[in-house]
Amino acid sequence: MLLRKLHFSTLAIHLIFIALSLACIAPLLLVVSISFTGEHSLMLDGYHFWPQKFSTAAYKYVFSGASSILNAYGVTIFVTAVGTLLHLLITSMLSYSLTRPEVTHRKALTFFVYLPVLFNGGLVPQYILLTRILHLKDTIWVLIIVYLVSTVNVLIMKNFFRTIPDSLIESARIDGSGEIRTFFRIALPLSKPSLATIGLFVAIAYWNDWMTASLYIESPKLRPLQYLLQSLMNNIGYLQSNAQASQSMESAIGMLPSEGARMATCVLAIGPIILLYPLLQKYFEKGLTIGAVKE
């Protein structure tokens, strides 16, 4: 009887998680289906998980400026990769320093790190700093520096470094390892779960950022993907509103793949970044330090 109850409970848990997984996957499949459906078919038949009338008009419209899209992809990939690596390096080094009792003025430095959580300078001081003091306007580095340090991520990494046994650090020092070597050879490898989690969130923030480009970027060659897609959607809305002023709603929507283009931009925007999830999933497991020190 107990075995049957156990099997039933396990089956019920599996069914619940399968249902939740399908609920998460279904919107993504619907977005892909709409992006490959003709605009006229969407207006007549509505949304379906399989295109009622297959069409690539939305992607042709989005890729009408193919060189701009490819250039924007290159800018976004560079900013995301370099920004995420620098963010993880700075965050991990700062967090590790805050956990070591031998660091001079550690409490004052910790308070300086906590202070931005309570008080934020705002957008105007940031704009003045980046444009008039650092002179980073209309450079690719302005897209990187805005997310280079996060107080919340520093706190997360600091708490994780506290879980590393002090005996590991002491053993490395006894063997003649310096602070830099101890950090890169012992502390950093043991913090892979924390690095993977923070790195994923930071990469998504860099990938989805378009506001920074709208404030600081003027050159078309430095526009990231999200800003370009946002501009494309604004152009579609503008053209559609002008068409509706002179034609009927049906003919205006038929001329411009507005709904399909919106979904196509979603597919193009989330396609590459979604590949990070299966690559980083194994590092979400905790407890890498268990058994590292003999009792």
UniProtKB/TrEMBL annotation:
Subcellular location field: Cell membrane
Protein name, entry field: ABC transporter permease subunit
Any Pfam family: BPD_transp_1
Main location: membrane
Protein's organism: Paenibacillus dendrobii
Biological process, per Gene Ontology: transmembrane transport
Domain of life: Bacteria
Annotated ranges, domain ABC transmembrane type-1: 73-280
Listed PANTHER family: ABC TRANSPORTER PERMEASE PROTEIN MG189-RELATED-RELATED, POLYGALACTURONAN_RHAMNOGALACTURONAN TRANSPORT SYSTEM PERMEASE PROTEIN YTCP
InterPro entries associated with the record: MetI-like, MetI-like_sf
Keywords attached to this entry: Cell membrane, Membrane, Transmembrane, Transmembrane helix, Transport
Transport in keyword set: yes
